[in-house]
Known about the structure:
With 216 residues, the protein is an alpha+beta fold. The protein contains 4 helices and 12 strands. The protein has helices at 64-69, 126-129, 161-166, 184-212; strands at residues 8-17, 22-27, 40-43, 46-53, 57-62, 80-85, 104-114, 117-123, 137-140, 143-150, 154-159, 177-182. The longest helix has 29 residues, at 184-212.
Amino acid sequence: MFTGIIEEIGTIKNVSRGSDSAKLHILASKVLEDARVGDSIAVNGVCLTATTFGDGIFTADVMAETLDKTNLKELRPGSRVNLERALRLGDRLGGHMVSGHVDGIGTIVGLEKRDIATLVMVQAPDQVMKYIINKGSIAIDGTSLTVVSFQRDRFQVSLIPHTAHATVLGSKKVGETVNLEADLLGKYIERLLQGRGEQRENSQLNLQFLAANGFL
């Protein structure tokens, strides 16, 4: 689990590509301070496992499913990425609970400067939009943000100067993609309601069976 509070911006040193996978070589400093092989590090909001460490660098393998469902497939040498170590018990939860499992890829379709803030409009797929609410939480490239407003297929967030400077979002342009993870709470509520609906459906089928067989 993560909090969506980015610890530093790393830089892709190299991408070793396989037939259906990739190995990322990432330059970093802060996230390496107490890291060990096997630790989870979120890279642009994607939970990856650190496999090796060197002098100011770590590597992480990316499987085909992750390449297909996230914007990590677009990374090249020199690309900048948001980095965050996994949450430890006792840490402050400054953002919101982020799993590092991306729900969909969004596209930046609008940027607007308003006083000190930068308003970012993101077009998102249905599987993300169904969880979007005003003042709700959303992780964009791993950054915990609050939804300012939304329409049918897009939503808007506001970046304070610190967030724009401390994350890759501050340098994003219109047309660029972002990884999106909806708030976990909405997913749990949806599943709970689905479960209740299934229980009601099963109860109705049982009653129909009993009635059809003369038990009622």
